[in-house]
Q: What sequence folds into this?
């Protein structure tokens, strides 16, 4: 870890020699695809961990630049961008830290004030509605189109190949039935692609405890054109009573629920697959646990 920290700091100083660094903390476990470096307790630097993440990093930077000033909640603004775009350990983006901490399950569960929870849900619903309603063509970017039927068919194939040997028979049967029902229902794939976040989980939602409100949305590495129900599926993981507040703020959300239910059912499987592909035993065990 010290060697990696020094490597990252050297990369930053090569491109930004005038940036005075007096404190740095490397938090590798924060991101699946990026290492997180906190500099001077106020600047977040993200370095791609894997080769396939380099292109994603540059796409995210372009998207974040185009999205500035368009939302009611703060998002990262990349002000530090590496000159080296093709090498792990050299490629990075940096932005000033947004106040607040990730809304992890334990932090969310500790909030008991129902008025605060209703306000938080309304903030998140408003952000998603703003995002999903944004005309993507106005951004001037060549965004990937995702969440097509073939992608879910590929996921199903990977689940069968890599995860079924570790799953109990009943779980395999249930997963097969669920995937095949979804894949063989054409109307579930006739959605209009919109701009969506793609990883709207608790770790990417920032909560300001002092203000008792949502203060930021981070990590747009999975963002692109796709099914807005993907974000709704992530929003539903906070529980029914919390999610019910979305209906008053996000018009037409009810039409997304059926697809969102399917997407939500794949989250653990996707985590297990990530564990297999990147030799992350903890991620694999967390994901496979409900099926083993």
A:
């Amino acid at each position: 870890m010290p060697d990696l920290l020094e490597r990252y700091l050297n990369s930053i100083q090569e491109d930004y020699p005038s940036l005075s660094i007096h404190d740095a903390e490397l938090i590798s476990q924060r991101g699946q695809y990026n290492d997180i470096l906190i500099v001077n307790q106020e600047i977040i630097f993200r370095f791609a961990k894997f080769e396939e993440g380099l292109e994603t990093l540059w796409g995210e930077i372009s998207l974040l630049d185009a999205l500035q000033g368009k939302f009611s909640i703060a998002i990262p603004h990349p002000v530090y961008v590496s000159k080296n775009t093709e090498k792990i350990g050299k490629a990075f983006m940096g932005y000033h830290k947004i106040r607040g901490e990730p809304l992890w399950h334990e932090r969310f569960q500790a909030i008991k004030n129902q008025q605060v929870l209703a306000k938080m849900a309304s903030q998140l619903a408003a952000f998603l509605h703003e995002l999903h309603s944004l005309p993507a063509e106005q951004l001037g970017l060549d965004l990937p189109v995702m969440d097509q039927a073939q992608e879910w068919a590929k996921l199903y194939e990977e689940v069968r190949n890599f995860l079924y040997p570790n799953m109990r028979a009943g779980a395999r049967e249930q997963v097969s039935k669920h995937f095949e029902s979804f894949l063989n229902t054409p109307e579930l794939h006739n959605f209009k692609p919109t701009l969506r976040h793609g990883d709207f989980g608790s770790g990417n939602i920032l909560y300001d405890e002092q203000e008792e409100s949502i203060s930021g949305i981070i990590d747009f590495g999975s963002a692109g054109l796709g099914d807005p129900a993907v974000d709704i599926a992530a929003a539903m993981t906070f529980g029914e009573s919390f999610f019910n507040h979305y209906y008053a703020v996000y018009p037409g959300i009810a039409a997304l629920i059926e697809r969102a239910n399917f997407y939500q059912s794949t989250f653990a499987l996707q985590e297990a697959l990530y564990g297999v592909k990147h030799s992350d035993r903890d991620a694999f065990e967390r994901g496979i646990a409900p099926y083993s």
Observations:
- The first strand starts at residue 24 and ends at 27.
- The mean pLDDT is 95.
- The longest helix spans residues 114-133.
